[in-house]
Amino acid sequence: MREVAETLRSGWLTAGPKVKLFEERFATYVGASNAVAVNSCTAGLEVALAALGVGPGDEVIVPTLTFCSTANVVVHRGARPVLVDVGPDGNVTPEAVDGAISSATKAIIPVHYGGQPCDLEAIYRIAEDHGVAVLEDAAHVAGATYRASKVGSDAVSAAHRIPRATVFSFYATKTMTTGEGGMITTPDEELARLMRRWANHGMDRDAWSRTSAGDWYYEVVDPGYKANMTDLQAALGIRQLERLDDFALTRQRYANLYDQLFAGLQQVEAPLTHPDREHVYYIYSVRLALNGSKLSRRGVGEALRDRGIGTSVHFIPVHLHPFYQRSFGYRPGDLPGAEELFERLLSLPLYPRMTDGDVHYVADTLSRVLQEARA
Ligand SMILES: *Cc1c(COP(=O)(O)O)cnc(C)c1O
């Protein structure tokens, strides 16, 4: 709050010195050579696709178990989203990606589901073999690591020569927040320069550099977007970033506690984890096994709601939404892994301000609801 008030008093509200500082700190934190702050992850994905040259006639591979914006931005660019299936951990499988590559494929957007990184090494290898770009949707994983490197670091793709960027979300509910906001990181300086321009109307100079240089002249080089972050958001981000590791530790502690409390319960399967990745538990999404129960997944959610516990489902697979069925011919049954998972998923409360008592209350209540519903 102090940092935001200080920014208000400074007289510079839009993208300026605080955004620069936040970009530098975030780049250092993840280990990236370049960071470009934007006003949302959605905008960042679209800016990156534009800078990668994705447009009409191109295909972009997107896992179906994601928030709609991962696919919507591909449509905005006039390209075709090729939706693919996911494994039991919610992450896209390398086999699904490999099977969807065509001569029109321009990029792959792996989504790091729920806070756990995808099998990045396998995905980068496929991308390199076929000469396509990788744009990681890292909305859930600020702070997570893959094989000892932070998601978004240069090191993750160091062995592979492909165009590549990673986009984070600082939406209110994510692992750190600026209210709304996002950050793109990339090892590629030229791509960073293009993304910066696409995020600023396609202008070759931004307002801060024009003002500080006392010169009004600029040129529009691309039909860019209005996607810049503001200094007010960056002020929040600078302070949130300092707390990100603590937030992650708290989330992990509560997730481990849930895991223990559900260990003996056959009807609740805890999230799957991989030893080479650090999960930051943006969501704690269990898989319910309700065969032989009088309750449906919806019924379980309602019973929990009646006892003061909010739940959600992440996500309705993109290919089941009317727009994607109408425009691209997708049908139920097309991507069975994601559909089967979707039917069983339930995201339980998980946020740093919870207490151990809250976690116990949720777990005990869920077990009781499931016991009572046994047929
Ligand atoms: C939240 C989310 C986004 C969008 O993030 P915004 O910053 O709100 O634009 C994109 N992809 C996934 C997987 C998300 O969960």
Beta-strand residue fraction: 5-15%
**Uncertain segments of ≥5 residues (pLDDT<50)?**
none
Give the cofactors and ligands.
pyridoxal-5'-phosphate
* Alpha-beta content class: alpha/beta
Give a count of the beta strands, DSSP E runs of length 2 or more: 13
Specify the oligomeric state.
Answer: single chain
Whole-Å distance between the termini? 52 Å
Helix share bin: 40-55%
Separate helix tally: 13
Overall shape: globular
Q: What is the strand arrangement across the widest sheet? A: 1-9-8-5-4-2-3
Report mean pLDDT, rounded to a whole number.
Answer: 96
Please provide the ordered H/E string of secondary-structure elements.
HHEHEHEHEHEEEEEHHHEEEHHHEH
| Most strands sheet | 7 strands, mixed
Radius of gyration: 21 Å
Structural overview:
This protein has 375 residues and is of the alpha/beta class. The chain is built from 13 helices and 13 strands. It has helices at 2-10, 17-30, 41-51, 69-76, 94-100, 120-130, 189-198, 207-213, 231-262, 297-306, 322-328, 336-344, 356-372; strands at residues 34-38, 59-63, 80-84, 105-108, 133-137, 145-146, 149-150, 164-169, 182-186, 268-269, 277-278, 284-288, 345-348. The strands form 3 sheets. The protein has a 7-stranded mixed sheet, with helices on both faces. Helix 1 (2-10) runs antiparallel to helix 9. The protein is globular and about 75 Å long. It starts with a helix and ends with a helix. The model has no long low-confidence stretch (mean pLDDT 96). The structure holds pyridoxal-5'-phosphate. Residues 40-42, 66-67, 69-70, 111, 137, 139-140, 169, 171, 182 line the site of pyridoxal-5'-phosphate.
